[in-house]
What does this fold into?
Amino acid sequence: MSGDILRRAEAHDAAAVAELAAQLGYPSDEASMRVRIEAAQECGTRDVIVAERDGRVRGWIEVVIIESLANDPFAEIHGLIVEEEERGLGLGARLVAAAEAWALERGLIRIRVKSNVARERTRKFYEKRGYTVTKTQSVFDKMLE
It folds into this structure.
């Protein structure tokens, strides 16, 4: 919407960012989210961009630079969340465009996003914006003690 402001997330956004993350099944508390936002601000290889309207955060996107021996550096979207009642109104597309611009500003020519295969609406959203499926894989976790 025309009154939306896209800007870099600040520590004072932590409660709103955590609340939005919980809407997609990633619960977090304000204190933990504040630490994560501050770490993103300081590291230089990742950032969080929020969409704000009427003084309230309505969505956010996290973009990260991935570096490895096997590939040239590229950007990866690590999270995109738009407030439930705002979905389908263009805010997510604006946040993705902001992440793409962030990557280009850093000289990166490729951006990746991973999505759970169960999120059919998400797949269609990204395909509509020119993203293509390049790999299907399993994810393995192990808790270290």
Summary: The chain has a mean pLDDT of 94. The radius of gyration is 15 Å. Helices lie at 14-23, 30-43, 91-105, 120-128. The CA atoms of residues 63 and 77 lie 4 Å apart.
